[in-house]
Specification:
single chain; about 160 residues; alpha+beta; two-stranded antiparallel sheet; elongated
């Protein structure tokens, strides 16, 4: 398209530099709002901003739909009955454990009493049979003939 021997000189043109014009910060001011109409299509609202610009559009209010009362999947009475049953079973289990503990404690005390009786009875038997083995060293007192005065036997 261009011949190779043609020199290309850049064209110089005057350039204008545009600096942006800062807007003053927008101060929130009460803006006039056109109320909505009663029909299905909302009214067009125009708002005048503090810097003089006009914004036009639909005023859309957030939809507030009231949720219908949702019934729980299980009735409250059934839940209360179930919780009562669980509580009753817990009490019954606790009473069974308490009864078992009392029975075990009773058996343990009975075994201790039996062990004490066997040991004490054995000690008494040893005392009786060892004292009768050497008659010379022990003192024999005939209680029917003895007279007790001031905790001393006089026989």
């Amino acid at each position: 398209m261009y011949p190779d021997h043609t020199p290309h000189v850049p064209v110089q043109r005057a350039v204008e530099v545009h600096q942006p014009t800062p807007y003053p910060p927008a101060v929130p001011a009460p803006a006039p709002v056109v109320p909505m109409q009663s029909n299905a299509v909302p009214a067009v609202a125009s708002i005048v901003l503090p810097d003089g610009r006009v914004v036009t559009g639909y005023a859309i209010n957030p939809a507030h739909s009231e949720a219908p009362a949702v019934k729980p999947p299980v009735s409250r009475i059934a839940v209360n009955v179930a919780l009562g049953g669980v509580g009753f079973l817990a009490v019954c289990g606790g009473l069974i454990l308490l009864t078992s503990f009392i029975a075990a404690l009773t058996a343990f005390i009975t075994q201790l009493i039996t062990l004490t009786a066997v040991i004490f009875g054995g000690w008494i038997a040893v005392q009786i049979f060892s004292a009768s083995g050497h008659r010379g060293t022990g003192t024999t007192v005939n209680i029917r003939k003895a007279v007790i005065k001031r905790n001393h036997f006089h026989g």
